[in-house]
Specification:
It is built from twelve helices and 13 strands. The protein is of the alpha/beta class. The strands form three sheets. The protein has a seven-stranded mixed sheet with strand order 2-1-3-4-5-12-11, with helices on both faces. It has a four-stranded parallel sheet with strand order 7-6-8-9, sandwiched between helices. A two-stranded antiparallel sheet has the order 10-13. The longest helix has 16 residues.
């Protein structure tokens, strides 16, 4: 049997249909007094009335949906980020719609436009951006400028936005201190006695990869241990990318072997690099030390334990959604999460030294 209609609820409560709609569905323009609203809600509950989500979205101007865009849901970095976003959404009684771009700027832009059409309450974009001069970003109209314009249109129509990784224009962002974290890691490895280094640098034009690679190499140059250009190998931002990059690094080195220590600019790449080293007959860390970046949960099962830079990814997701919704950041991570402005938050990493980079 069909349930009661909103008109029937309004009649039973002794109010107009418009008043009943504003009390139950909310309104972007007009509100209902607390007493009247309670009377309508009590009547609706007694009659077993269930609100229509489409009607609520129309009345409020936005749905109770949050869009989350990540590059690769199979990557533990993004699954941890998603866990934080969904946890914060639960606290605000919001639902999360998740999509994976598969590292395609065109897919990312299309999802933003879809969420705008569906009037999602907020959007969180997780993962690094491509630089504007990167040829890989010329995917039809899917340039960083096109993404920025689409997000601004969404924001100006009533949506809320936050990015994770780097800022894009004046949009709210949780910025990861990638360059500083990589520099701190370089300093720590240098302090352990390492003087010969290689870098699996990630994709050309990927801003996160660039910041981590350059932060690492610039710090080493300042310490008197510059990294040779041939030892900086571009590769995909994946486990297989790290595997292929390590194979190339081992193949192009001279009789002295590969660099004594190798940074992969994220942890899944580092796991691939360790596998490639073993395939080449090299022992980690006896023959080559390996370090990563992010401290993903998968590392609990990696042997030897991987040295990395820890980013509190679940907390980053929580902060990102709260920032998007215009709520207080509310972090309990002093010294790690820093509020730069009401629209910008910086998250700093912590170097974690493990068995993959023993002291020499």
């Amino acid at each position: 049997m069909a349930g009661p209609t909103l008109s029937e609820v309004a009649r039973a409560a002794g109010v107009s249909l418009a008043t009943a709609s504003r009390a139950i569905n909310g309104s972007a323009n007009r509100t209902v007094g607390a007493d009247l609203r309670e009377r309508v809600l009590a009547t609706a509950a007694r009659m077993g009335y269930t609100p229509d989500p489409s009607a609520q979205a129309m009345a409020r101007g936005r749905t109770t949906t949050v869009g989350l865009v990540v590059h690769d849901i199979a990557d533990p970095y993004f699954s941890s980020l998603a866990a934080g976003v969904t946890d914060a959404a639960d606290q605000e009684n919001l639902l999360v719609t998740l999509t994976s771009t598969q590292h395609s700027p065109a897919r990312e832009l299309a999802f933003v436009e879809l969420m705008d059409r569906q009037r999602a309450r907020a959007l969180v974009l997780g993962g690094g951006r491509l630089s504007s001069d990167d040829p890989a970003s010329d995917d039809g109209a899917a340039t960083p400028g096109a993404l920025h314009d689409a997000l601004v249109r969404y924001r100006d129509s009533g949506g809320r936005v936050a990015l994770v990784g780097q800022a894009l224009g004046d949009l709210p962002a949780v910025e990861i201190a990638n360059r500083q974290g990589a520099a701190d890691l370089a300093t720590a490895l240098h302090g352990l006695g390492y003087r010969s280094f290689g870098v699996l640098a990630g994709p050309v034009g990927h801003r996160t990869a660039i910041d981590r690679s350059e932060g690492f190499t610039e710090a080493l140059a300042a310490l008197g241990s510059p990294v040779e250009d041939a030892a900086v190998v571009p590769c995909e931002f994946t486990r297989d990318g790290g595997f292929a990059g390590m194979q190339e690094l081992v193949a192009c080195t001279g009789p002295g072997g590969p660099p004594r220590a190798v940074l992969a600019v994220n942890d899944v790449m580092a796991v691939g690099a360790m596998a490639a080293a073993r395939d080449a007959g090299l022992a980690v860390p006896r023959d080559v030390a390996v370090a990563g970046f992010d401290d993903i949960v998968t590392l609990r099962d990696v042997v030897p334990g991987l040295t990395t830079v820890r980013i509190p990814l679940v907390e980053v997701g929580q902060v990102a959604l709260r920032l998007a919704l215009g709520l207080p950041v509310g972090t309990d991570l002093p010294g790690v999460v820093h509020e730069i402005s009401p629209r910008r938050v910086e998250v700093r990493g912590t170097v974690v030294l493990r068995e993959s980079t023993p002291a020499l």
